[in-house]
Specification:
The chain is of the alpha/beta class. Helix content is 52%, strand content 15%. It has 17 helices and eight strands. It has helices at residues 2-7, 23-33, 42-47, 54-64, 71-87, 100-103, 109-127, 143-153, 178-186, 202-213, 228-236, 245-252, 257-266, 277-280, 284-295, 299-311, 317-321; strands at residues 10-16, 90-97, 130-138, 160-166, 190-195, 217-220, 240-243, 269-272. Strand 3 (130-138), helix 8 and strand 4 form a beta-alpha-beta unit. The two termini are 20 Å apart. Bound molecules: hypoxanthine and zinc ion.
Length: 324
């Protein structure tokens, strides 16, 4: 089964580029940029990873970003992820990035996106790994800041496929960003939002994603299973759910294999993703292998989950069909 998973051409739709920052690259960039990390070795840094919910993860995730300073750093981060994807037969990826986590440290928006874009182009031409970029807004920052960043992105519109919403969900509902997402849609961008596992008001937030924002996809969305009406709406609209098993384990102590099987049984378009693989120590293959073991999924079920990622990818139908 492991070989079956490793050999399949795969797509990943929920991976935060900043969440692919491996400890070794952190150390190399810290040395280059004269940044104090506070740990003696990459192993010591990993040993300090202590997450048990979304806020405890986010503190470590944002803190580590201080090593990312110039265009070459964003290039290296992106190139390393796409090379890893290549080594795992992940042939297509939609990549999240968090510009506000960089501009708030004084790093120019253009530096971030140009570094990422150059690596995407090189990965496509040299490795054959295609990728598209999704700009996320930090939901614990203001709607005004999100709108400012959407305007900053306008000159780079052609480099983006969509926008997303991430960071701390508590007291930051989808409707806080209704105007920003409306403008993004007018710009021709696809829309997605995180509805992380077991958050306060999660069913309300999923409902807002569907009815107020009219998203094209939902990131995580596992709690939709608690409402038949939400499941029916998600199914009727053909919306993909980007589920992240190993990421979920830090919050709910399971890979949510039972929930993923229920989604499959209901005909919902669940996909499997790594979220923040450098932190959760699992890329796409490891997520699939561990999920299969916990849920005893058949080859056919794994193939459905992998196929779903191509089905709901933001690619032209003709291009998707070459992978299916
Ligand atoms: N949820 C919310 N925000 C995030 C995540 C996540 O899983 N990863 C990086 N930012
Ligand atoms: Zn995420």
């Amino acid at each position: 089964m492991q070989t079956f998973i490793e050999n399949m051409p795969k797509a990943e739709l929920h991976v935060h580029l900043e969440g692919t920052l491996e400890p070794e690259l952190s150390f190399a960039l810290a040395r280059k940029n004269n940044v104090e990390l506070g740990y003696a070795t990459p192993e010591e840094l990993v040993a300090a990873y202590d997450f048990y919910d979304l806020p405890s993860f986010l503190t470590i995730y944002y803190g580590a970003m201080k090593v990312l300073q110039d265009e070459a750093d964003f290039y290296q981060l992106t190139w390393n992820y796409l090379s890893k994807a290549y080594s795992q037969n992940t042939v297509y990826a939609e990549l999240f990035f968090d510009p506000q986590a960089h501009t708030s440290r004084g790093v120019d928006f253009g530096v971030v996106i140009r570094g990422i874009r150059a690596a995407q182009e090189d990965a496509e031409s040299k490795l054959g790994v295609k990728s598209q970029l999704i700009m996320c807004f930090l939901r614990d920052m203001s709607a005004e800041s999100a709108m400012e960043h959407l305007l900053m992105a306008e000159p780079y519109r052609a480099w983006l496929v969509g926008v997303g919403l991430d960071s701390d969900e508590k007291n930051n509902p989808p409707v806080k960003f209704a105007a920003v997402f409306k403008k993004a849609r007018e710009m021709g961008l696809k829309l997605t939002m995180h509805c992380d596992v077991n958050q306060q008001n999660t069913l309300l937030h999923i409902g807002q994603c569907l009815d107020d924002i009219e998203v094209d996809r939902i990131d995580h969305g596992v709690n939709s299973l608690e409402s038949d009406a939400l499941c029916d709406a998600i199914k009727a609209r053909g919306l993909g759910l980007t589920v992240c098993p190993v990421s979920n384990r830090f919050v709910v102590q399971s890979l949510t294999s039972a929930e993923i099987r229920r989604m499959l049984d209901k005909g919902m378009l669940a996909t499997i993703n790594s979220d923040d693989p450098a932190y959760f120590r699992a890329y796409l293959n490891e997520n699939l292998v561990e999920l299969q073991r916990e849920g005893n999924f058949s080859n056919e079920e794994i193939a459905t989950l992998v196929g779903n990622a191509f089905r709901v990818a933001w690619l032209p139908a003709q291009e998707k069909n070459t992978y299916l």
